[in-house]
Amino acid sequence: MPLAGSSITAAFLGALLVALAAGPAALAQNVVRLPLQNSDFPISSAVTIKAGTDLYFLSGMLPPVVDKAAAKGSAAAFGGDTAAQTKGALGAIKATLDRLGLGMGDVIKMTVFLAGDPEKGGKMDFAGLMAGYTQYFGTKDQPNKPARSAVQVAALAAPGALVEIEVIAAKQH
To answer: How far apart are CA 121 and CA 103, in angstroms?
Structure first.
């Protein structure tokens, strides 16, 4: 593949330079995260997985029912708004990762399905997603950022759920 004019090659070389600047510990990593250009948004543009890395595919997680007194199938049963439900779904993912000996920093790809929020005129609440998401990713304690997609869907399997999140995690073996 020619080096000149190849944005993919340039992006990879940029990620390699970032790893080199970080020192030998970064070079030992089998997961290379390419940050978004000219942005501090808490996702990666791309993530490269090298040989010697195990991949873990987690099924979509809904938020847990947190209010058994709330009407069954209501958003309130799952914690209310999108921010609370995102935090609940990510908490469920964290618990599964913990059982696998992994952490949130091992998440390399995330797909978020958002149902329209009746309180927002049937539109997805992206700001609510980000309020929950940024408690787990791109923080001082957990700076790793996965590649991510977020889409609005007509509905989720559980009435009242506004968020379902699936992830792929990777860990060097």
So the answer is: 35
26-35, 47-56, 73-82, 154-163: the lowest-pLDDT one:
26-35
Residue 132 CA to residue 43 CA, distance in Å, equals 14
pTM, two decimals, is 0.80
Element (H, E) at 84: helix 82-99
Q: What share of the chain is helix, strand, coil (3-state, %, to 5)?
A: 30, 30, 40
128-162 pLDDT, tens digit per residue, is 999 999 999 999 999 999 999 999 999 999 999 99
Cα–Cα distances (Å) from 143 to 46, 70, 104, in that order, read: 15, 36, 10
What are the extents of the domains in the chain?
53-172
Is the separation of the CB atoms in 89 and 166 below 8 Å? no
DSSP 8-state symbol, 19:
H
- The 3-state DSSP class for residue 145 equals coil
| CATH number attached to the domain at 53-172 | 3.30.1330.40
H or E stretch at 88: helix 82-99
CA distance 61 to 138: 21
Residues contacting residue 113 through CB under 8 Å, at least 6 positions apart: 60, 151, 153, 156, 163, 164, 165
